[in-house]
TrEMBL record:
Gene3D superfamilies per the UniProt record, alphabetical: Dihydropteroate synthase-like, Sulfite Reductase Hemoprotein, domain 1
Domain of life of the source: Eukaryota
Span of domain IspG TIM-barrel: 94-363
Protein's UniProt keywords contain Oxidoreductase: yes
Cofactor(s) the protein needs: [4Fe-4S] cluster
Classification via Pfam families: GcpE (PF04551), GcpE_C (PF26540)
Residue ranges, annotated region (Disordered): 1-20
NCBIfam families given in the database record: ispG_gcpE (TIGR00612)
InterPro entries: Dihydropteroate_synth-like_sf, IspG_atypical, IspG_bac-typ, IspG_C, IspG_TIM, NO2/SO3_Rdtase_4Fe4S_sf
Residue ranges of domain IspG C-terminal in the record: 647-735
Taxonomic lineage from the root: Eukaryota, Viridiplantae, Streptophyta, Embryophyta, Tracheophyta
Keyword terms, alphabetized: 4Fe-4S, Iron, Iron-sulfur, Isoprene biosynthesis, Metal-binding, Oxidoreductase
Name by which UniProt lists this protein: Uncharacterized protein
SUPFAM superfamilies membership: Nitrite and sulphite reductase 4Fe-4S domain-like (SSF56014)
Amino acid sequence: MATTGTGVLPPSFPSLKTKDHHSGLGFVKSLDFVRVSGLNRMKSRRTKISVIRNSNTGQDIIDELQQSSSQGSPLLVPRQRYCESLNKTVRRKTRTVMVGNVALGSDHPIRIQTMTTTDTKDVSATVQQVMKIADEGADIVRITVQGKKEADACFEIKNSLVQKNYNIPLVADIHFAPPIALRVAECFDKIRVNPGNFADRRAQFEKLVYTEEDYQKELEHIEEVFTPLVEKCKKYGRALRIGTNHGSLSDRIMSYYGDSPRGMVESAFEFARICRKLDFHNFVFSMKASNPVVMVQAYRLLVSEMYLQGWDYPLHLGVTEAGEGEDGRMKSAIGIGTLLQDGLGDTIRVSLTEPPEEEIDPCRKLANLGMRASKLQSGVEPFEEKHRHYFEFQRRTGQLPVQKEGEEVDYRGALHRDGSVLMSVSLDQLKVPEKLYKSLSAKLVVGMPFKDLATVDSILLRQLPPIDDHDARLALKRLIDISMGVITPLAEQLAKPLPNAMVLLTLKQLSIGAHKLLPQGTRFVVSVRGDEPFEELQILKDIDPTMLLHDLPHMEDKLSRVHAARRLFEFLADNSLNFPVIHHIQFQNGINRDDLVIGAGANAGALLVDGLGDGLLLEAPDKDFDFLRDTSFNLLQGCRMRNTKTEYVSCPSCGRTLFDLQEISAEIREKTSHLPGVSIAIMGCIVNGPGEMADADFGYVGGAPGKIDLYVGKTVVKRGIAMEHATNALIELIKEHGRWVDPPTED
């Protein structure tokens, strides 16, 4: 970091001094300001920043912001535009980038891609896998190229595919190897470079101090190493992806920006400026992270900076190391789906620890979601948005229920501080109470339910049992007695009153005073759409609901659930109303399970990653109750809210992988899935550096063929463990750090 005094900016902020096209990250002219965390600096100092504010009124107002920049303090920066529209999905306008014969950009469909898992040197196996991927409908395929032998094989792979009439564009995945990138650029259509390790050494997580001269020398070194590849791509008509990975930022970047989204953006911009200096524009950006919240923030910050610079390069979207099964699909839906509904993204990959062809279907579902939303320009009427945080996670926490004088039962457990799960329960389920209790994940002690870590918080009962059905009503009383909320519609409660139930009302019912028919002290739950005229929402200021259910019918295509909810939260913030809001999504009959997971992740997840919302109520009449419950908890955990099971950061495998990732991942999950609060990284290799473990407590990493290295955080603690002993060694490591509990036994 440059050792500068007050009023002088480090070399990575030249845009505050100049506006040419080589400038660094800048600040938009704006009246609004937000805090961006993570800009860790080495020494405490006072930095004076002059910011030119909005000059549309005809005069420039200069505010001198005096802000402490000691380590860990947030930097005050202007609120910046990050998408085309805040009230509807409008696809961001980009230039066209050609990858072989496939065009990327806003004038073209959202392209889907995946990556081979074969040994690249095995030409026949790789060709067969590429053909299978192409037959499944992928537009682009990426292949790892780590050395000279793999680069030589790439020529054979390309030629063999052409001979078999497969012209799908091929992308070389490059780390640490500029000469290999130069070689493979002669035959492949696109080169992916990782700015964190293409010219810089692997991060050692050392805090470095730079003079301005030192910093500039490192930038000159990057330009020297990267320029030949850019020139070669120009010569052969190739494309580039400048693909930043949250887990592999260089020590230089982290020493100034910290392990942050802004560091990810600046890392990519260093390479982009070189491309632009050489008049090369056939490139795309990506900002991948295993944490969907970080991933969303990084892409938004990237786009906001591109708006500021006047750049229009396409985006490749992805959540890296998402994992497998519904967990992996959920994480990808949260990250990718959020951005697609803001009109961002031109090509996507869903990274799963599964065969690559299995990635194509969820990838296609997400692409279709994005294309449909942008075609319809789904949204709501324009509204002013002032309170949402685009570039950092700041949760809006609704006021949890508090006990009121005279109440016979404890309502405080109806919602959970880290995020709530509500479930719709039928009369048939009440016929077998013990089975219902288990379905709600309650512990049973002598047939009586008790709440546990992952017990459903409240239930919606659309029909109440008859007053003379004593068994069903006793089952409900036992749930209410353990502080589980029971919600039922107004008409049901008036016809068949259930003591201590919470009553579900619509805004219309409130407006005509129907709630006054209920006994005084009855708790209300109010269902709102979010697109109502603000005048209709005003009635919320006169009542004290326990929670709101945000419920927008799925049949109304032109309306966007995400934008309607943002509008609702804006109204609540404007009026200082801190009611908890539950995202209530009712899916249509017959929906595919993957469609439900992706729909829930893209719609509710897009709000939860912004800290908007306090829980979920997912309904699908023909879907298994346990599946809906687990999907709800998975969604909360994927948004970094309520942690109810072991978190896995699992890479999708590639030609570098040193063991059977799918088999080992399944083995580790089977033995460790009962450890909520523990996160485990399962990595086929360490190509991106130990930063890959940034989100994990423990790491299981291929170090050499047949050998495993174990990590605690980013630090390797055991090397070269024989694979057959490695899973048990991981368990022992977890025990040594006091994070192990024995698996629960069945009652």
